[in-house]
Amino acid sequence: MVFKIQAKSFISIITSKLILKMSKTFLKGGTNFPGKVALKIDKNILNTISKNYKVILITGTNGKTTTTNMIYNIISSTNQEVITNSSGANMFSGITACFVDNYKFTNNNVKYAVIEVDEANVKYITEYISPEIICITNLFRDQLDRYGEVYTTLEKILCGIKKSPKSLLVLNGDESLLGNIDVPNKKIYYGFNCAIDDTISVDLNADAKFCKFCKCNYKYNFVTYNHLGDYYCTNCGYKRPELDYHIDKIVEQSKSGSIVEINNNEISINQPGTYNIYNALCAYTVSRVLNIENNVIKHSLQKQNSSFGRQETINIEDKELKIILVKNPAGYDQAINAISLDESKINLAFMLNDNYADGRDVSWIWDVNFEKLTSLNVDKIMISGIRLYDLAVRLKIAGFNSDKFHMCKDFEALLSEIIKCDEKTVYLLATYTAMIDFRKFLYNRKYIKKLW
Question: How far apart are CA 436 and CA 452, in angstroms?
């Protein structure tokens, strides 16, 4: 059966689809502009093209793309129809383009849409869509020139949630900013019921150190990383909520992944680091809410493919380039912790940009624990990006021998240095636009088969 839609909506969809096709054919990308065109023709187009979808929104500072990818793959493995904005275009226009791209003029069965959304854009999406589930992964300082502090970021997200009071909220219970939030939505919390180590206090540079109700310092039964953990306030009694889904035991952590127990079910996660345990736990929680069986979830999490730029491995000549997106101190420190699990001799590459999508202010690099990397067996250090000299100074202060620095002013120089590395493994830590542009460069050089 054909949908009855307004002429304006029809023109909006057809025009956007044509631009999407041309963008994919000639530009190998361009996921935001077609959405902008669609919205220009019909500002309410998202309401039309999202019908018949059960929408799951994933937002938060870190882990959106990986968590979205995990949930999408789990649902896909059940043979249910599902779409996602896998390109990472998580603004209003990019999400609109995703729905346009998947829109059909015939009435199909109900499908799922697992959508990553930028924190500041939640309110635009919920203006037109009432999601089944809204997930919030965490709240860290990120792009201060755009978001402000973490409390401002939370308000931006809550502004969107308040437009969708019937959405189920899946929240990180270890995130102190997400407990007792004043919305009528039903809430499900996930988090750690076990300590990773003996840490019970947060670092000086941790983000949300003070009780959001009385402003006293939090105390912790344990800290997982940054300000996440089993928190409580001795002054007003505010504490972590009861967890519905939880990590009961960490069986093993290595450079290739983790083995954990979630609600007493042993799960293997093939991506390393504590932050990926959180991502997998969020995906597990959503999947159980959707009544997906444990064995299906377990099998999917064992064989997840890395999202582009998120610990993605690219073969360059005889080297293994592992690209890790870094964009704020909390995420950078977790990436460093994951790399620290590798006891072999390695090479390190760093890229720092200050474009709008990265955040103009790069002073946040001084809050990153680069010092921890100096204890690793590092053979070669390559530095690139718009702000390569700022990063070189930071690394020198961290304790690296500047004689080992290879300053790469363009992608050709960086690629050349990677190829000349004596050791096989190269970890590349890159900010957003640096990662995107370098991947395009590698795509054009035939080292990457699929750009998005």
Answer: 10
